[in-house]
Amino acid sequence: MAGLDKRVSSYQEALEGLTDNMTVLAGGFGLCGIPENLINEVRRRGVQGLTVVSNNCGVDGFGLGLLLENRQIRKIIASYVGENALFEQQAISGELEVELTPQGSLAEKIRAGGAGIPAFFTATGYGTQVAAGKEVREFNGRHYILEPAITGDFAIIKGWKADHYGNVVYRHTAQNFNPLMATAGRITVVEVEEIVAPGELDPAAIHTPGIYVDRLIQGTFEKRIEQRTLRF
């Protein structure tokens, strides 16, 4: 699968062009499959007023929680926010704007954005606060609300392996939101554990084709676990 070499040599280069008030799509589920080094670079750059779209907002002191500590996030669009005490404080004080979205709807909003679909109807959320201010229609005797798609200025993605052309493979649960978000960013940046030579990846195993990827970098990862559960 021939194409342009997407590799960059530094995290500074990977996020070149990221500025204040942009929308950033951040892959991951909990702490699984999060682009932790790219998040660290967002923090280092000090950009402010960000709208972040993610399943959740990390934990205190790690992942997107670092951007909360640095007061860089203005608004978060997420489906789960229960692991971060600082998030709770900022939300209650009004410092942080929060748009809670049902998880399936969030995934579909991102998928639709990547597919060029501006909005879609879903029954999820009808009759709740999620539906407030949204168009409602009836289809076959059931009510549906109109949900707008989501796209971003940047999508920051964590993969397992990629080739020089940006064809990406994710490992197990790390597929979560990463493949969807990779399609919905105006600039998609992927960090992976290993970059292999062209031709080493099985074409049938590729989850994100390189056409969606703008920049690619290899990193090392801490891979924290949110809650360790032991069974005896």
Automatic annotation (TrEMBL):
Keyword Oxidoreductase: no
Family: Belongs to the 3-oxoacid CoA-transferase subunit A family.
Entry GO MF terms: CoA-transferase activity
Alphabetical keyword list: Transferase
Signal sequence extent: none
Protein name (database record): Succinyl-CoA:3-ketoacid-CoA transferase
Cited SMART domains: CoA_trans
Superkingdom of the organism of origin: Bacteria
